[in-house]
Amino acid sequence: MKPSRLTKMTGLGGLLVVVTLIMAACSPAAPVAVVPITGAGTTPTVPVGMMLAGTITAGMLPGGLAGILMMSNDPKLGDFLVDAKGMTLYMYTKDTAGVSNCTGDCLKAWPPLVATADMLAGAGVPGKLGSITRADGIKQVTYNDMPLYYWASDTKPGDTTGQGVGGVWYMMSPTAPIK
User: Fold this and answer.
1) For residue 3, what pLDDT band results from cuts at 50, 70 and 90?
2) Whether residue 128 has pLDDT greater than 90
3) Do 110 and 90 form a contact (C-beta atoms < 8 A)?
4) SS3 label, residue 36
5) Alpha-carbon dihedral of residues 93, 96, 127, 137, nearest 10 degrees?
6) Which of 27, 66, 111, 113 has the least CB density, counted as fewest CB within 10 Å?
7) CA 85, CA 20: separation in Å to the nearest integer?
8) CB 129: neighbour CB atoms within 10 A?
9) What are the φ and ψ backbone dihedral angles of 143, each rounded to 5 degrees?
10) pLDDT band for position 9 (50/70/90)?
């Protein structure tokens, strides 16, 4: 049996080829730009424009980042925002720009997307990321100044069961809530 090309690669040269291939596979496909993230208090910076493909876990993101917004699509509902795990993000129509009005039991069903210092907007996410400090002290991510939430009944990536709940909860699209 003839040895394969990979088994012939030995020593430092072979190791460099393997490391280069791994690094290329893990690198973002697009350059990263830095823009300010707005919100109460200080104004940290947020890399945006990172092109990501496939299933992403926090361990795969630079520095273990889990705070990334990406686009997803439903054939009937269109484009909408998801987190790094593919979980759908929603907005509450009783909120106003920069203010969350979901408190108490509402937060049990609709947990906020909690802000980290390293929030990223994936390619194709044209809006403005920001954050607010809620009355309970939690720093919540905003998109075009509207607070973002999860729906507790969405159990797996791609679930959109919170769409239209109570006539006030809607998936967040890149330009407006999906109604």
Assistant:
1) very low
2) no
3) yes
4) strand
5) -110
6) 27
7) 27
8) 24
9) -130, 120
10) very low
Question: Among 86, 132, 93, which residue's Cα sits nearest to residue 110?
Answer: 93
Confidence of residue 110 (pLDDT cuts 50, 70, 90): very high
Cα(173)–Cα(71) distance, integer angstroms: 8
Contact 89, 151 (CB under 8 A): no
Q: Residue for token digits 């291939």?
A: 21
Rounded Cα distance, 156 and 93, in Å? 24
Region 26-47 average pLDDT: 34
Domain boundaries, the chain: 29-171
CB 70 within 8 A of CB 84: yes
Give how far the C-alpha of residue 56 lies from the chain's centroid of Cα atoms, to the nearest Å: 10
Q: Name the token pair of 37.
A: 């993230």
Assess contact for 143 and 173: CB atoms under 8 A.
no
